[in-house]
Structure formats: structure tokens, C-alpha cells
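Re: weekly structure request thread

Next one in the queue (546 aa):
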Amino acid sequence: MAEFLFMLTVNNLSVQFGKRILFDEVNITFTSGNCYGIIGANGSGKSTFLNILSGKIEGNKGTISLESGKRISVLEQNHNSHDKHQVLETVIRGNKKLFSIKQEMDNIYSNENFSDTDGERVGELQVVYEEMDGWNAESDAATLLSNLGISEELHYKIMEDLDGKHKVKVLMAQALFGNPDVLIMDEPTNDLDYHTINWLENFLSNYENTVIVVSHDRHFLDAVCTHISDIDFGKINHYSGNYTFWHQSSQLAARQKAQANKKAEEKKKELQEFIDRFSANVAKSKQATSRKKMIDKLNIHEIRPSSRRYPGIIFQQEREAGDQVLNIENLSYSIGNDVLFSNVNINLNKSDKVIVLSKDSRTITSFFQILTDNLKATTGKYDWGITTKHAYLPIDNEYLFKGDLSLVDWLRQWTHIEEEREELFIRGFLGKMLFSGDEALKSSKVLSGGEKVRCMLSKMMMIKANVLIIDEPTNHLDLESITAFNNSLINFKGALLLSTKDHHFAQSLGNRILELTPKGIIDRFSKFEDYMGNDKIKKLRQDLYS
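Done, posted below.
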């Protein structure tokens, strides 16, 4: 017990909205030195729980107890909340007590009638300020900003003068500033680039205090988490290990539960063998070199089946594509004088799984829109092979859900084959995507972002294409849908053009990287991590974006 320096404790927490119960008598403790990944289906209350922990809202019943003198820091979700403040000041404001002391000292020093009483008060404040390492606040804040890719020339600008991506990084620095005792982050990797996410993973893997995080990025959860905190049936339970361990072990437990005739000894042996295999793999990872030794904590008794429902995503080809899939010659696209990409010359093979990259997300979306005949290129041409049939998942699908159709009628409009227009046939596709019973008759106008993506996946499955074009597929999806989607694309036998910020998607799917820049392309047959870590490619990327 001595190793735990403090605790954040949740006692008898209950939260109810109308008749809907989110949490029912939750009792759980977060201890120092661990990183907890909060997971749960969409609508289970993940963000609500973080807001309760941080004091933004209160539950209907129960208490949140933090050891006296400890500090909670929360990643700000409102990117415009500090628009009138200087960048460095915004970061230092992350430690409210420290910033308050600094403000009070500045106010006293600016007093023209400086008195002995003022001098005594300043002396008292300086002692506390020094104990909090306040004299190094600016240099510490500057170091954080630089590590997050905010150059020194931006440190003294006003926040409203920064673009959205820079604001996100400044707010990240604010949350990390001053070594908070509890760090709470809701989707911290949103809008961060690959290199910044990698830096954050390394930072949190070696963070000595408590981290509580909600994220749909499985690679991130695997890299930083010592525990998974699962919201299920109105309760929250901690499980030692990262997300992959939790997912695989819960699936194994579910299979064992279904095997009623299997002896308890055989089940225990199978579970223990799974733990041993997983532990051996983790021991080879970078996390094993950090202070977090999750492999020492894996416990066979913690493994339980989950109530999660996973959509049944299966992409089948109506026919296999021939050798000629897609030929692109001298393709370019500009918006006014702004060149998004140029000199694209490639041949796509039927076995290619292409990860499409660019520093500007507009570039990739425009590229996909051109290939799907939704946008006209500035120069060049492209030719699809006569045996190809492609299905497209756009990043913005709002235009496809304008009409007030039931989901059955919405999906029916995408096929002209008579037997495929039958309600029973269409309900089969919707059922795979968890729209069962009356859910299949709800209006397409009232769908959430995640439900719309699941409808789009039903549409894509029904097309039976041999080429899939997918733009940021994990937007709006929960972890269960993301995992099922990822696995389906791994098993897909056709060609793939994919844009994604999800590290696991990119690494597990891609065998070819295509990066679009204003000055040309980089085209390499490579895995994602090898490409991003290649020093020669890093230099080439700098030249093409400069």
C-alpha cells in the first residue's frame, strides 16, 4: 500500500437522466502511478464521468474524494476559451494556484503606494511561489510548447491568432503543465498529427502521477494504459492491462461462457496460457521499459465476458478485379492559387492496400472526390479498369441523409436489383450493423454520426465492390465498431485506398504509402511505421512541403 502516494476515490456515484440510469452506485479508486483508459459503448457516459471527476457537473448521488493538496488538470475541450490570452500565459494558467499567486504579486508590484504590508504579503507569496517552482514556469511552459511542435515565434502571440491545430497543442501543454496529480483527458489525440501523438504516448508512458483518459485510438490506449476502466451495466470496473488485452481476454471469456460443457480446469488453463502469451508480447514492447509494469498485474480472475455488441462487417467482392485497377496520369488539383496536390502518376494493383497521407486533410478528400467523379481535377486524368467496382465512404456524408426515409428505404435506394430491394434482404444488412427490429424503421434524418457511418457501411457491403475508398473511417464510431471495421478490412481481398488518423488502422492495413503534396508525391511500398520513421523520407517530406 505504501507505493500509492494518493487516491482519487468515487463513492456510491449514481447518475440518472430522466428514466435513463447511467451509473448505479459506482465505487472505484484511481491510484497514483497508473493510467486508466475509460471505455464504454456510445452513450454509456464516458464524457459525463470525466466531467463529474473534474467537478464540472455533479451526480445525483455520491461523492468524489481527492486527497488534500492534490491538483486535477483537465484538457480543455473549448478551443476558443483562451483566445484573448497570450500563448505562454495560457499554458501557465493550467496551474490555477500558481497563476493566481503570480497575478497577485504582479498586482502588488504595480501598486504605486507600495506599503510595508504589501512587502510582507509579497514575501509570503514568493515563498509559496518558489516552493511551486514558479520562477521556472515560463521556461517549463516554453519547453512543453516546443516539444508539442509550437515554435518559439508563436509563444508570445495571442491565442486567437493561432490556427486550430496549434490551439489544440497549446491546450495540451496547458493540461500537462505543472505536473498535475491527476490528468484528465477526453479524446486527446483528436486533431493531433502523428509525431505529436507519438510524443504524447512517450510522455504519458513515463508519467508518474495518475492519468484518466477517454480515447477511441486503440494504439494510443495500448501505448499508455496500465488499466482499462470499463463502463458496463451502469458500473465501472478496472482491469489490469491495456485495451488489446482487455478486448482479447473479454472475447475469450465470452467464448468460454458459451462452452457450457468445458471443464473449469480446462478453461482456467486456456486463460492462463492466453495471459502468458500476451505478457511475452508486451515484454518486447517499449512500454515494458517504462515504470509501468502491467504484465506483473495481469490476473486470471479479472477476465470476464463483456456485454458489448460488435457489428458484423464483411466486405465481399462480386468479382475479383483484373490486373488493371486504376491508372492516374499527371493529376493535380488547386483551389484558386492554393495547390493541394500535383504530379500524381500511379498504377494501383489489385493487392494494394494504400494509406493516403497529406499534411492538409482537404488534399486527401479532394483526391478521393475526384476519383469517385464528385469533383473535377485541375489537370490530368484517371482510368478505372473495366473489371473494377468501387465503394466510397466519404468523410462528410450529410448530403446523403437529407430525405426523411426509413433506414430500410434509405438503403433500398442504392440498389436496382429486384431481389436486393426486398425488405428482408435489406434488413439483413442493417441487422449486421446493429439496426434490428424497429431500429430499421427509424428516420434517416435523426441518426447520430456513428449511426450514419454504420448505414454507409451497410451500403458499401451491399455494393460488393472490389475497390474500397475510405476517408477517415473512425470518425464518430465507438471502439467496438472501429475494431470490427478494422478486422473486416484486414480480411478484404480487394484493393484499398484509405485515409486515417488511426495508427492501428494504418499499420495493420497498409502495404503501400501514397503521400500527396503541393510539389508532387511520395509513393512507397512500405508499412506505415517504417515509412514515418524513415529519415530519408522525413527529409524528402520537408522538401516537398517547404
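DSSP finds 18 helices and 18 strands in the chain. Residues 264-283 form the longest helix (20 residues).
Next request, please.
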